[in-house]
Amino acid sequence: MEAAKLFTLKGKTALVTGAAQGLGREIALALAKNGAALVLSDIDNPEDTAKAVEETGARWMAVQADITDEDQVKTMAEKAASEFGKVDILINNAGVSQLSYTATEDLSKTEWDTIIGINLTGTFLCCKNFGKEMITGGGGSIVNIASTAGITGVPRAPAYSASKAGVILLTKSLALEWAKYHIRVNAVAPHYLETPLTEELRASEKIYAGLVKQIPMRRFGKPSEMIGAVLYLASQASAYTTGTVIAADGGYLAQ
Ligand SMILES: NC(=O)c1ccc[n+]([C@@H]2O[C@H](COP(=O)([O-])OP(=O)(O)OC[C@H]3O[C@@H](n4cnc5c(N)ncnc54)[C@H](O)[C@@H]3O)[C@@H](O)[C@H]2O)c1
Fold it and tell me: Which of 11, 79, 168, 239 holds its CA 20 to 30 A away from the CA of 202?
């Protein structure tokens, strides 16, 4: 393929979970600007993202769904298929963090289950149900949004860390299992980003200063700085790449 066209998504349909705000919104817009039709999915109504995607001229539809509920994921897959025929690109971005930073000896099972349920089980359910369609449809590309927290441990955030480590090994396992179906499965691992998810951390000068001290680039990342990695993995630019994790982390993991 010509170098200039490596990143084009013309003729492709992409579904982004957690598209209502933050990184998901940024990813959805970038995919639309690169030519994809968009399925905007979130537990909340992604209407702001839909307005912005509409302005790019891309085709889109919005589906409200809780990714922890398999019936809702199945219905979402059916709705997407009936509107666009096939989802070629699945971006599993919806997620929650563990901002209570409770000492683990006091962490409730409810909080553990919620975080694992959304970040890991939700990602599995979307991979499973859209993967099934990709198998019969001749292939696709899945990009899972993991985290540096899935590679290094995080004190007082074991559920988040374990959920993202799970996402990374889910990514690798599916890459091995589905390569024969021409489905590539990869992940992006951001470190801290300037999104609504980290609002509380950024609101405290002391906490923010403590966190950026550990990052070689001395700042949180911007959602727009994750787009290159996502576009690479979603598009034909990465045609021979599967089962990999790209860290976009201000140098955090190089230490
Ligand atoms: N912000 C960071 O510092 C950071 C760092 C590393 C990784 N990440 C990961 O990036 C992804 C996006 O994070 P963000 O910062 O944009 O967060 P965010 O809180 O701004 O957005 C997350 C979105 O996911 C949606 N969502 C939550 N639960 C859902 C469910 N059950 N079903 C469907 N949608 C659901 C929310 O409604 C929201 O729109 C997450 O997977 C997160 O773990 C974020």
Answer: 168
Considering just the CA atoms, what is the radius of gyration of the chain in Å?
A: 17
| Domain of residue 207, residue span | 3-247
pTM of the model: 0.98
Which of 17, 21, 23, when mutated, tests ligand 1's pocket best, judged by the most ligand atoms within 8 Å of its CB?
23
Ligand 1 interacting residues, C-beta cut-off 6 A: 17-18, 20-24, 42-44, 66-68, 93-97, 118, 122, 145, 147, 190, 192-193, 195-198
Residues found in the chain: 255
Residues acting as catalytic residues:
160
Answer yes or no: is 209 within a domain. yes
Domain with residue 95: its CATH number is: 3.40.50.720
Asked if residue 255 belongs to a domain, the reply is no
Round to whole Å and give the CA distance between 14 and 37: 6
Residue 254 lies in a domain: no
What does the block give as tokens for 157? Answer: 């955030």
Q: Is residue 252 part of a domain?
A: no
The number of domains in the chain is: 1
Query: Tell me: the pLDDT tens digits for 110-153?
Result: 999 999 999 999 999 999 999 999 999 999 999 999 999 999 99
